[in-house]
Amino acid sequence: MESMPGQLRDAGRDASSSPSSKQDAQGFSGPGSLKPNQVSETSLYGVPIVSLVIDGKERLCLAQISNTLLKNYSYNEIHNRRVALGITCVQCTPVQLELLRRAGAMPISSRRCGMITKREAERLCKSFLGAHTPPKLPENFAFDVCHDCAWGCRGSFIPARYNSSRAKCIKCSFCNMYFSPNKFIFHSHRTTESKYLQPDAANFNSWRRHLKLTDTQSDDINHAWEDVKAMFNGGSRKRTLPMSTVTVFIYIDVHVSP
Length: 258
Fold this sequence. Notes:
CATH architecture of the largest domain: Roll
Mean pLDDT: 77
Low-confidence stretches: 1-31, 235-258
Organism: Mola mola
Protein name: c-SKI SMAD4-binding domain-containing protein
CATH class of the largest domain: Alpha Beta
GO molecular function, one term: RNA polymerase II cis-regulatory region sequence-specific DNA binding
Shape: elongated
Largest sheet: 5 strands, antiparallel
Keywords: Nucleus, Repressor, Transcription, Transcription regulation
Pfam families: c-SKI_SMAD_bind, Ski_Sno_DHD
CATH superfamily of the largest domain: Ski
Number of helices: 9
Number of strands: 10
Helix content: 25-40%
Structural class: alpha+beta
CATH topology of the largest domain: Mlu1-box Binding Protein, DNA-binding Domain
C-alpha cells in the first residue's frame, strides 16, 4: 500500500493502453460529468484513494481505506463501526473489481470489494481518527428525534449537552425528563396512536441504529446529525499495559495425604 500513488499512475497508463479497458471504463478522470465505471483518484485525510462511479455516485474502495487510513484497527472494529453509523456497502461487479485491481486499489487475489460514498468514508474515518468536537450549530439548537422501540418515544437531542457517551442530552417530549442516548431507546410512552413493537435486539450500544430524526431535514442538518452520532463511538483504542506492569498471582493448593 505504500506504493499506492505509483500503482495508480501505472494502472492509469495500462488502462488507457488496453482495448478492453477502454470499453469498461473511461480511465482516470478529473472533475466533471460522472460516467459509469469511471475510475478516479480522490484525497481522503491526505491519502489518495481510488474512486469508481457506481449507479451515478462516486464511491470509494472500503478495503483500500481499511488498509491505509484505518490499518491500526481490526476488521471487526471497522465493520461494527460501519454498521453503527448506518453505512451500507455496495458490492462491485466482476468488471468493476478488475478496474480496481488495475488501479492498484485491490490485490489480484481479491474476490470482492465493498464501495461507500466519499461522505460515508469521511464519517467512518472521522469516527476513528477525528477528535470528538461537536459540529458547529446554533447555541440552542436541538434535533427532533424519535425511536420505535416498545411503544416508541419522541424527544429533543441537545448537542450542547452531549459531552460524553453517558450525557443526559435528550429531553423526552412527554415527561420532560432527560436521558442519555443509550437509555432513551429504552424509554417509551404509550399513547392512543402508538403501536407496540418488539425491540429489535436493542442494547445500550445500538442507539445510533434506533434513534432517528422525526422529519425530513436539509442535507446540512442530516450531515450534522451524522457527525453527532459519530462522536464518542469508541474511536480511541484502549492502550494495553506493558508486560512489566502486569503482575500475575498464582495460588497453589497443596493437599498432603496423611
